[in-house]
Amino acid sequence: MPSPFTSTEAMCTKLPLLRLPLAVVGVLCQITTMAQWQRAVIVRPQYLDITEIHIANPMAVVVGGLRNDTLVIARSSDRGATFTIVYEALTFGGGSGILTMTSVNDSVLFACGERVFVVSSDTGRSWSDAAPLLPDSILSRLGTYYNLTSSASYRGQYTVISGYVGGNFKPIYLRYYPHTGTWQTIESLAIYDGMTAVSDRVVYAHIWDSEAYKSVDTGSTYSRISRDPLYNVYDISFSDSIVGRVAGWWFSSTTDGGVTWNNKQVCRHGCSSVVFVDTLNGWIGSSQALFRTTDGGLTWQDQTKFIDTRPLPSNYWDAKHLAAIDSNIAFFGGREGLWVTFNGGVGTTSADPSGDRSHPNGLQLSPNPAIDDITITTPTASAGRLLIVDQAGRTVFERVVASTSSIDHTLRVSTDQFQRGVYLVLFQSADGVVAEKLLVSW
């Protein structure tokens, strides 16, 4: 169901019903309205066109970029607070740079593009040519000119790579099994611009500005997903074998593996990238357009006015590429650089960005969405008051947490008497107020 907090005015007019101090109301309204996207800090700052963003793990965020005729890979080990350039190579007269990255397993990464195939065995800290890993048969197929446009891996079991070779754009499709070091070449009629592997057999792929495809045999063959509901596909993202989203002329979502789709127009002229971190929180973007959802795509918040482009003009940004660690830390980039938010674009934060941000304000809800019971863990630094507030501003649950014991700060709450919908969970203490959104979906 649509979120009841579809506008800043709606939420802020309901908050005074809690009879909280005005300062607290102001803080909560600020959480909803004060978005902030800032340019990422890259050590040895240089102008970079961002061509790929990959999150190997929360402490290893890797981006590919171009600076004139130099291919660049930069890495962050502090959840996006700073990036350090870890690899540079001349492209010899141009090139598209790093077009795709994938985590082969917990430590090994591949980065591929036009005439580039490099590997890292330490989650992106250092890189080297991948040629020593490739059998002669693969090297001969790649030849002197190749462009590897997309890749995907599944939990260390396999990696698939798509692209083309030679000036006649002949498709090439590679499959790699890291446990055995085995490479395979699979005959392909298509050049895929994006892939995502969601199980030991299921891989989704798409062709830019065209169609989406599904494989149920680890990429050996693909069948086209019905074109009728999907128009001009630019990006595709599946969280498992049946739940997925597509960015294109429409924002499209499926919960049955692509059999049926729900369409919603978000970007005026189509969206080129989409990322979700869970069932509720995601972003969708394109050139001069960036939106965020906190209810699974039912409603979207325009975040374009909250992007800090200084010192360049306000239209110097591009959200062609999106990635996110969680619902708070997210990245977008394109031809004008890389941006990061540490608050999901819907709040302010004073926390150290290098700290643990899996639950940045210390308030944890599990599971969320909730079906029956929910476990709430409140910050242990101080005693306080826990409230759950419905969409009308009514308090439906209240509990005083009197001590700083970790046991007292973990509560199990039944949602049997709650109506289905969105609630605000608040913890008020001497340190201030923290809040998280809760979806009850029984």
Secondary structure layout:
Elements: H1 8-14, H2 22-33, E1 38-39, E2 42-43, E3 49-57, E4 60-67, E5 70-76, E6 83-90, E7 98-103, E8 109-113, E9 116-120, E10 128-129, H3 136-142, E11 146-154, E12 158-165, E13 170-177, E14 182-186, E15 194-197, E16 203-206, E17 212-215, E18 223-224, E19 235-238, E20 244-247, E21 251-254, E22 262-264, E23 273-276, E24 282-286, E25 289-293, E26 301-302, E27 321-324, E28 330-334, E29 337-341, E30 364-366, E31 373-377, E32 384-389, E33 395-401, E34 410-414, E35 421-429, E36 432-440
Parallel strand pairs: 2-6
Antiparallel strand pairs: 1-29, 3-4, 4-5, 5-6, 7-8, 8-9, 9-10, 11-12, 12-13, 13-14, 15-16, 16-17, 17-18, 19-20, 20-21, 21-22, 23-24, 24-25, 25-26, 27-28, 28-29, 30-31, 31-34, 32-33, 32-35, 35-36
Can you tell me about this structure?
The chain is mainly β. It has 2 domains: 110 residues, Immunoglobulin-like (Sandwich), CATH 2.60.40; 304 residues, Methylamine Dehydrogenase, Chain H, CATH 2.130.10. It is 6% helix and 42% strand. The chain contains 3 helices and 36 strands. The strands form 9 sheets. A 5-stranded mixed sheet has the order 2-6-5-4-3, with no helix packed on it. Strand 5 and strand 6 form a beta hairpin. The chain is globular, with a radius of gyration of 23 Å. The termini are close together. The N terminus is likely disordered.
Count the domains. Answer: 2
Average pLDDT rating = 83
CATH topology of the largest domain: Methylamine Dehydrogenase, Chain H
| Oligomerization status of the protein chains | single chain
Superfamily (CATH H level) name of the largest domain? YVTN repeat-like/Quinoprotein amine dehydrogenase
Query: Please, how many helices?
Result: 3
Structural class: mainly beta
Distance between the termini: 12 Å
Strand order of the largest sheet: 2-6-5-4-3
Point out poorly predicted stretches: 1-35, 347-360
